[in-house]
Every structure is written in structure tokens, then in C-alpha cells.
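Quick note —
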Amino acid sequence: MSNRIVDIDLDKDGEVIPQKHDKIALIDADTLIYTSCLNIQEENYIMPDDEIDELKEQGFVVDENKGIYFSIDIEEAFRRAEEKLETILEKTGCIMYELHFTGNQKNSFRYQFYKDYKANRRDFIPPAGLQQLKELFLERRNSFIHHKWEADDIVVYKKNKMPDNYILVAVDKDVLNTVEGKHFNYYESIKHNKKQKWVEVSAKQARMWPYYQCIIGDTSDNIIGPKGIGPKRALKFINEDMTEKELWAGVVKAYESKGLTEFDAIVNMNLVNMNLLADDEDGNIIIRKWYPDFDEEGNHVWK
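Predicted structure written out below.
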């Protein structure tokens, strides 16, 4: 019997590079762009003869409290982001990709549901070049900017609609855990020893996730669940083996245990749920609202 020698290609992390295939990398790319800008922006002191309004008009990000403004080499930021994109494609085996970005968040439908959505970010200063870099990718690569909804909403919608066409690529657990399947998490950090990795989500996990998220809330988006009920305690109210009707009953019980109402829970469900985009009769994307309607088997029904 002869021994066969097989050549195996390894990536920069020493992991086997998968064979190329025809699935499309469906990328929630907000973090990819954000980190590319954040890591290379430079601080500059505001001098006495600098005009603040003029700096802002020129596109610089200004922090008046600290007396600094941020500048960026946008072409270098583009190169850094492209480098990350190439790594994603190499690790997933995808040749084709779609990059999805969130545009003007104030136009997002969630602000219509809840006026204090992301209110905790009002004083947040984004990195320099963020919008410019998105527009550069829109010009040069297969990219899309969304204003009526966020990038995470659209990638979940497209993955659910055509699951066999795409590999879902994101860093946000709310995106990755919402859809059944094998997805790619492109988060990496040398400081925290975190590498990009594959994530597998079962049908039961995906079904339960919005209900679980409704209980624990999302403080980064100023979505506050019942106070005092964190990730571990939430699992005392719901579990993966429940029907959606039973899951909702558990959510309501959690809210009422802290003096809140079912209405409070419905508002938060519409804020955390990533499944709100759908097709209308003409094939146009619409935004639907979640209400506690269930069929005889306990499955949620959209109306």
C-alpha cells in the first residue's frame, strides 16, 4: 500500500484553509469599518487659531472637551479593512461577498418604536473617517448602506430568506444567535487572545434567542430588561424546549416579577428582535411589528 502525501494550506493562525465554494459571505460590516478607522486615527491638538466649525466642515472629528480633533489616512483605513475582508474570505472559503453597513441610524425604524433607543450613545464620538470609508467601499466593492434599518437586520433577513446561498458573517451575538446554521464570527483581539471562529446555532437556540434577549435586554443599545435578571436568571423563566407561546409566557412572567407589564415586554421584543424584515406581496422589503400571536402548536404567527 502506497502512502499519499496531501498538501494542506494553512492560514496565518495555523488553521486549514477551506476549499473555495460558491456561497456568498454575507457580512455585517459595521465593526470591520469601525475598527479599521479607530486603529489608525491620529489625535491633533486644537490650536488657538483653529476654527472648530471649519475643522468639522473639513470632515475632522472634534472632541472639544479634550481639546483635540482626529484625522485619518482614509486610503490606509481602506487598505486595513480590505486586509480584514481578505482574511474573512480565506477562512470561510468564499469567493463572493456582500458588505452591509448601517447608514443614518436616526432613520432606523427602532427610533419610531422607542425614542430612547441608543440614547446612551448621544455623547459618543465615532472614529474619524467612518462615513467616508463606508462610501469608499460603496464605490469600490460590493457594498450596501442601509438607512431604514441596520446592517444586522438585513443580513439576518437575507440569510433566512436564502439560507443555502450565504454564509452569515458577523461579530454581534444578537445576529449570530438569531439564525440557525453554521456562521463565522470575525471578531479577533490580540489583547484578549480571541481568534476568528465558526459558530453553530441550532434551530432551538435560534428560536429561543429573541425571547432570551428580551429578558436580559441590551445595555449597549439602551434596551433595559427587568432589573436584576441577568443571563443566568433568565434561564429560570425560559428554556430551549419550550414552544414560542411558552417562551413568551416566561418572558411576561419575568417582566411581571419586577413590576413591569406585558406591554413593556412587547416594546423590548420589537427592539431586540432581528427578524422584523420581510417581503410584501410585491417582493419589497417591509418592516413588520412583533405581537404575541401564536397558532395551536404554540408557534409565533406574523400578522
